[in-house]
Amino acid sequence: MTIRNLALLTPSGFVRDGAAEEWRDFLESCGYRVKLMPHINCYADSDYTAGSAELRAADVNAALQDEKIDAIWCVRGGYGSAQILDLIDWETFRERRNFPVIGYSDVSALHLAMLKMGAGLPVAAPMAARLKEACNNRMTAAEINKLWRLPVREERVLAASNLTVAASLCGTGYLPDLSGMTLVLEDVGEAAYRLDRCFTQLQMNGFFRGIKRLYFGYFTGCPGYGEVLNRWRKTLGVEAIRVAYGHELPFRCLRADWDIEEQRGRGK
């Protein structure tokens, strides 16, 4: 899989003037050609997103429709990806079946919708805003470097998501069927009862039905999370394995077409 031309955009939170250019320069120093999408620097002092949902979706759609663009690398999370789901050009997205969208955290709303719609290739990896820091971590740098070494498989076998973001999609029509798939979950800054609430909501919506394996990433700044995760592991009746994924380093990069157990077995 060859990735040379990147679109840099934010489907969620805003970035300050000049920051996007700095991240572009770093990615270009890594050998990529980078296009800053037109609305990447849009924000209002009274808002927390990078412009309106229409503007953010327009950047995603423009990247999808540009055949010279090989992938989208999201610059940050925050909140807002769910707002653009009804505005995505899903027909074009489905035609670009193996088009990577790179990010995690709030971007997992887009990743889950992609799995539901059979569109693109979800790739859980550090945001562009944290990429320089991530590349200074040896394990994470190795994970990022291996992202494009293997050809893409047509089958989607893995879903990686923020727990709270996944729960926010209940009832929207954008939660995918994960039967036979591996699910990897992480979260940040949530109290134990809020984590429990999300697990309950997702279970009642059938999100865990038929999952093959369950992995827990980092639950950063979530006091009491261990007891909640252990209780839900038992409730769901699946083995739960820990993996370095989420709002800390090192970061285990995850592609939706990768069997995580196979990758572990290869030592990659």
Low-confidence stretches: none
Distance between the termini: 16 Å
Secondary-structure element sequence? Answer: EHEHEHEHEHHEHEHEHEEH
Major β-sheet, in short? 6 strands, mixed
Described by its quaternary structure, the protein is: single chain
Strand content: 15-25%
| Class by alpha and beta content | alpha/beta
Counted by DSSP, the helix tally is 10
Strand order of the largest sheet: 2-1-3-4-5-10
Tell me the total number of β-strands. Answer: 10
Q: Report the radius of gyration as a whole number of Å.
A: 17 Å
Please give the share of residues in helix: 25-40%
Can you give the mean pLDDT? Answer: 93
Task: Based on Cα principal axes, name the global outline.
Answer: globular
Q: Could you explain the architecture of this structure?
A:
The chain is of the alpha/beta class. It has ten helices and ten strands. The chain has helices spanning 19-29, 53-65, 90-95, 108-117, 131-135, 138-145, 163-168, 192-204, 225-236, 260-266, and strands spanning 5-9, 33-36, 71-74, 100-103, 121-124, 158-162, 182-188, 213-220, 240-242, 254-255. The strands form two sheets. It has a six-stranded mixed β-sheet with strand order 2-1-3-4-5-10, sandwiched between helices. Strand 1, helix 1 and strand 2 form a beta-alpha-beta unit. Helix 8 packs parallel to helix 9. The longest helix has 13 residues, at 53-65. The protein is globular and about 45 Å long. The model has no long low-confidence stretch (mean pLDDT 93).
